Amino acid sequence: MARIVAVDVVDLRFPTSRHLDGSDAMNPDPDYSAAYVVLHTDDGPDGHGFAFTIGRGNDVQAAGIRALTPYLMGRDVDDLDGLYHELVGDSQLRWLGPEKGVMHMAIGAVVNAAWDLAARRAGRPLWKLLADLAPERIVDLVDWRYLSDALTRGEALAILRRAQPGRAEREALLRADGYPAYTTSPGWLGYGDEKVRRLAKQAVADGFTQIKLKVGADLDDDVRRMRIAREAVGPDVRMAIDANQRWDVDEAVRWVERLREFDPYWVEEPTSPDDVLGHAAIRRACAPVRVATGEHVANRVVFKQLLQAGAIDVLQLDAARVGGVNENIAILLLAAKFGVPVCPHAGGVGLCELVQHLAMFDFVAVSGDLAGRVIEYVDHLHEHFVDPVVVRGGRYRAPTAPGFSAQLHPQILRRFRYPDGPEWRLER
Amino acid sequence: MARIVAVDVVDLRFPTSRHLDGSDAMNPDPDYSAAYVVLHTDDGPDGHGFAFTIGRGNDVQAAGIRALTPYLMGRDVDDLDGLYHELVGDSQLRWLGPEKGVMHMAIGAVVNAAWDLAARRAGRPLWKLLADLAPERIVDLVDWRYLSDALTRGEALAILRRAQPGRAEREALLRADGYPAYTTSPGWLGYGDEKVRRLAKQAVADGFTQIKLKVGADLDDDVRRMRIAREAVGPDVRMAIDANQRWDVDEAVRWVERLREFDPYWVEEPTSPDDVLGHAAIRRACAPVRVATGEHVANRVVFKQLLQAGAIDVLQLDAARVGGVNENIAILLLAAKFGVPVCPHAGGVGLCELVQHLAMFDFVAVSGDLAGRVIEYVDHLHEHFVDPVVVRGGRYRAPTAPGFSAQLHPQILRRFRYPDGPEWRLER
Prior knowledge:
Chains A, B: It holds the Pfam family MR_MLE_C. Two copies of one chain form a homodimer. Chain A has 428 residues and is an alpha/beta fold. Chain A has a domain at 163-411: TIM Barrel, CATH 3.20.20. Helix content of chain A is 43%, strand content 15%. Chain A contains 18 helices and twelve strands. In chain A, the strands form two sheets. In chain A, strands 4, 5, 6, 7, 8, 9, 10, 11 and 12 form a nine-stranded mixed beta sheet that branches. Chain A has a three-stranded antiparallel beta sheet with strand order 1-2-3. At the A-B interface, α1, α4, α5, α12 and α13 of A face α1, α4, α5, α12 and α13 of B.
């Protein structure tokens, strides 16, 4: 029997703001960061996980993870199934959310680290570990509280059982062809026109059939940039736009109306991620332009309502915002029930590495479908990971290494540690 | 000119779980806690504020407040108006919410401390300071983003101007008669039947016309306790019930149906505070029993939707959950627009002390109304405050001391400091 014998938490920050990588209408100068956690065991592999932030406050996020250490120390690594339920059910910690913000993201980080550990011990990539679970086992991973008016445990079981017959065939397809991706790399708001044009052309040359542009700061700029990008990619490549929560409801409707001539495929985060009714109003007014959101949606209860209200065409789950793999399974099941495609949010630090597993599990064992589904891809910081994503021909290749692809190289933990790692000491 | 020259943050915990004070269906053993902040100035009074938690994680909440120190140090104390806007607008910190959880409560704590400081410097209690502001000044305190589909700045101005003529008369009434209260003291779930009966009778003898009972853990227990309480208080005293988020939607409807014979005045927190559509469904099914929520509602965007969806009959703002006084002004204005009475959540550590100022400001300068309005009162921990609430004859008396009534006695900061204060060292 192996136990968790030490928990390391590191405040890592990458100075991405120096080149305006990741800049958008709400986030002009992010320093992509990770509050990174390692579950050390006394026998066999360790487990790795993290919460993603964009700089200031990453120390608070790390403190949130450290506060969970007493729940982890000494635990049997083959008995981590109850961890998520125990953490989200802790009545005192719950007050700090409930199920939102720093404490919920901290729970997500350690739950994901426990899944990384479980997959390594099983010698399988996480997507495969999950896809091989029996439907009864999968529904037990979900916290069913607050869901029953939209999805019952029985309905979820039926969804999973319906997907069982085709599992092997879809797994083979996935291993052969990968999973479709789209790229955000051309579209950061801080990039000049020529860089947008060049990167948009490059994206098409690289095999992507969808790109995304950041919008929402200045309408004239957006018109000019969308024209440039549309000319660069031609009429058949999908162009999504992303406002990063910049607008009120009426403003979103007016702005999208003005950009309609460039045939936007979806409008992402048009307003507050908490505004279910606002998204529903925007969707009614902007159709047929699709409405997408999710990267800042705090938990399954808000996703439930976005689906109940018919507020979204595209559900963008995030691997490091909600309560880890367990809550994302609930979200995948909700999306399958309502027939809404899941197109995960990625980028940042390691989000591509994580979400690919969730999307591939969904394809093999939940929705069984690729229609309308793409995983975001941003070409940042992958070199720092031990098992980085492989995107070729506009598709994510199925990971084969055991685990959740969450591990950073050990020297990265030293180099980018904030504020005392060499990358930051040089800065001062 | 005075400046902020030091910021102290203290992790304070009170061992309330020893006597099951504050116990309910979701929170069986809270240790009422405060992440407490003092803004020290180089001339004149200091400012005091806090976030309220129920124990574990209060260290994370304190870390959240400490992370805001750089935004506070050196600031001119007469120029704190922009503080709220600057903090909620900080793009990197915003990622940790946005506007929810630990980081948002931290912002609320320092914004409230800044208001405490401003009111002390003005030599007036906060409710009076706010009530004397010009309507144009009040609307400038609000972050209008995401609100315009429900309430515009112009509509808010009209609400405030409509209330102007009666301000002096209502202020005199408030000073003479106080503001109505209700008491939760009889109803904690951990209390035995005899204690419930005795405290319910005592509440009526003390002049309260409304009490509240915790429910939701066991239906038979709830029936028995409500029968005892109804017999004790008679048919004319209002009895609210509070499930503390324990139920799914259908479960809430069935439970309330069974308790209907005891004439519950409102059902509070029947389900997740994030579930706008769920509350709306419960309200439709449970009428005429009122639906109340708010103590865990993360921000003005969720309150906006609860009002837009017709999901609540009673809005229970909390002084230490959202982004401080500024965001609560937005919430009071939204409630006034939709004609929904505000009955603030209180209890905990110092929440009674804070919310009385907001409710009194509302009465004098916003809604101008007391109909259906009561402030929660719980008789806990007031002795630790320098300017504790005074509740007599079932009514809060208007505070007269300068400030926001947020200051704890200095010896309390030493005695209850966690984990090294004497109250906790004895525990070990």
